[in-house]
Write a structure and sequence with these properties.
Distance between the termini: 31 Å
Largest sheet: none
Helix content: over 70%
Strand content: under 5%
Length: 548
């Protein structure tokens, strides 16, 4: 796959992802405005995260890792792969229904597992609300699975856009839900929230996932794909064998995330006991992580999704060097966005979060920014690692990648508990950001070494020089702006939220232009990616208008 082809494929997805992330941002801002950043928000966020964790743990990772390579191979079947896809979707759907039923029954045990501090004496209200939210949100598991399966079928047939565009429907429902809630029932807290309000927020959140899944059915029909309920596991043996190791991979990953949730909620409870009012806990980490993932979601995921079917075919044909070349190209292209984004998050984390999160205090929004700055160190390594993991997926090696995620999570877990014990309570959540960053930096070297068995030696030198020049261009563009913002802060000039947003806009525009100029001056060829992505998205928009 040539770079221009990659740009065209990823451009469509990037446009959908940008709109999705914008609407997701609005939704996230409204959630913070309604629930705040303290324990009430933690009860909702822990419960709303649970379906994603359980889904990814037991099914989701296997689907995304092996579904496309297996579907690509099923195209050679007489029916074009329809029977294979139907049986796999039916089988997974039944598994998900059983999982939902068990999860709703054992909701108290799940809350105790992920947020044991809610069972501390004196926090009975938090515990009961978290359990209720969990029961309302767990049915999302089934519809997350349905969405993923239909989207991966479309991807395997060369239709990449729908998987990126469907979440917009999810976000719009969430915006309507929380926007309406903010108007009708402002000022809710742990002491005055009603059972009806809890049910409305819980079921409303689940309904948004239902809509996200259902909008893909017309897409599948338009592609001429016939999906029918079909029982039986004939021909699925290899898929489930590969899924076994993927399950181990995701299990290790989610155990690491379990520790993150535990440590964050422990910090939140301790903060409440110490009468610390600044929002410390899982919610600040969640929203900082969400902001950090923006460039990854828009660019990295788009490029990964575009190249996976291609590199799967290259791997099937035994073209190892071409697989390696595609991975290196993807890493260099992604770096054009992730490197300056990481620098921006590091330098301007508090300014970013203070500008976008409304309905909470400056202290709370600034704290989210500190967490974002801590997470920034890991953004580039996280993105590169995910690209390399797709290399293992292309060769249908779900076993070796387990070593990589094991190393990452050993370091993450160790550092998380270290920070919980030795840091002051108000700094623990920031420490979790540092743990994430350091663990993925270490994991990158491990993954590079492990992939050698399939692609030959993939050295840092194939992209580190380019990334270093990107770093220089980013620092030259942003350090003067950072100095100016710090000087303004030193003067103790009080900005309104609108003025602060204006300051951020000016900083980002000037930084972007300066970065482009600097990158071109340093001879970074991949900087043309931005222009190609823009052209791809413009063509997509024009085509959409014509169709309308």
């Amino acid at each position: 796959m040539k770079s221009n082809d990659l740009f065209r494929a990823s451009g469509i997805m990037a446009l959908g992802t940008i709109i999705s992330r914008i609407t997701g941002f609005v939704r996230g801002i409204l959630v913070v405005a309604v629930l705040g950043t303290t324990l009430l928000a933690d009860t909702y966020n822990v419960a709303n995260t649970m379906p994603n964790i359980l889904y990814n743990l037991l099914v989701g990772g296997a689907l995304t890792a092996i579904f496309i390579p297996q579907l690509v191979r099923s195209f050679d079947h007489a029916d074009g792969g329809d029977d294979f896809a139907s049986r796999l979707i039916t089988t997974i759907s039944l598994i998900l229904l059983v999982l939902v039923s068990l999860g709703m029954f054992f909701a108290p045990a799940l809350v105790r597992l992920y947020a044991p501090e809610f069972f501390t004496v004196g926090f009975e209200t938090e515990k009961d609300i978290a359990i209720a939210f969990t029961r309302y949100c767990l049915p999302q598991i089934f519809f997350l699975g349905l969405f993923t399966m239909l989207g991966q079928v479309a991807n395997a047939r060369g239709s990449f856009g729908p998987l990126m565009w469907a979440p917009i429907a999810n976000n719009l429902v969430g915006i309507a839900l929380f926007g309406g809630f903010l108007i009708i029932s402002p000022g809710i807290n742990l002491s005055n929230i009603t059972d009806f309000q809890i049910a409305l927020l819980g079921w409303g959140t689940t309904f948004s996932v239902v809509v996200q899944a259902l909008v893909l059915f017309p897409v599948i029909k338009k592609l001429g794909i016939t999906i029918k309920p079909r029982l039986g596991v004939s021909g699925l043996g290899k898929s489930f064998t590969l899924a076994g190791w993927t399950l181990v991979y995701v299990l290790i990953s989610q155990l690491g995330y379990l520790v993150t949730v535990n440590v964050a909620t422990s910090a939140a409870v301790r903060s409440a006991q110490a009468n610390i009012e600044t929002g410390v806990g899982y919610t600040p980490y969640t929203y900082a992580y969400f902001v950090m993932l923006l460039p990854y979601s828009i660019v990295t995921i788009s490029i990964i999704t575009a190249i996976l079917p291609h590199i799967s075919k290259l791997a099937l044909d035994g073209k190892r060097e071409e697989v390696k070349a595609q991975l290196v190209r993807a890493i260099r292209l992604v770096g054009v966005i992730t490197v300056p984004s990481a620098v921006a998050f590091l330098l301007f984390g508090p300014l970013i979060t203070q500008s976008i999160f409304i309905g909470i205090s400056d202290d709370d929004s600034r704290y989210i920014g500190y967490v974002l700055s801590a997470l920034s160190f890991g953004l580039v390594a996280f993105s590169i690692n995910l690209i390399l993991i797709r290399g293992f997926n292309a060769f249908e090696d779900t076993k070796t990648q387990v070593v990589s995620i094991l190393v990452i999570n050993i370091f993450s877990v160790a550092m998380s508990y270290f920070f919980l014990v030795f840091l002051k309570t108000q700094w623990v959540t920031i420490g979790l950001g540092v743990a994430f960053s350091v663990s993925y930096l270490i994991g990158l070297f491990v993954t590079l070494r492990l992939l050698k068995k399939h692609t030959g030696r993939l050295a840092l030198s194939e992209f580190i020089g380019q990334h270093f020049r990107l770093l220089i261009a980013s620092l030259l563009a942003m350090l003067p702006l950072f100095a100016m913002t710090q000087y303004i802060s030193w003067l103790n000039i009080e900005f309104s939220r609108a003025a602060r947003a204006g300051e951020l806009l000016v900083v980002m525009v000037v930084a972007f232009v300066a970065y482009i100029v600097g990158a071109k001056a340093l001879g970074i060829e991949e900087i043309s990616m931005i222009r190609h992505l823009g052209s791809s998205m413009s063509r997509r928009s024009a085509k959409t208008e014509e169709n309308d």
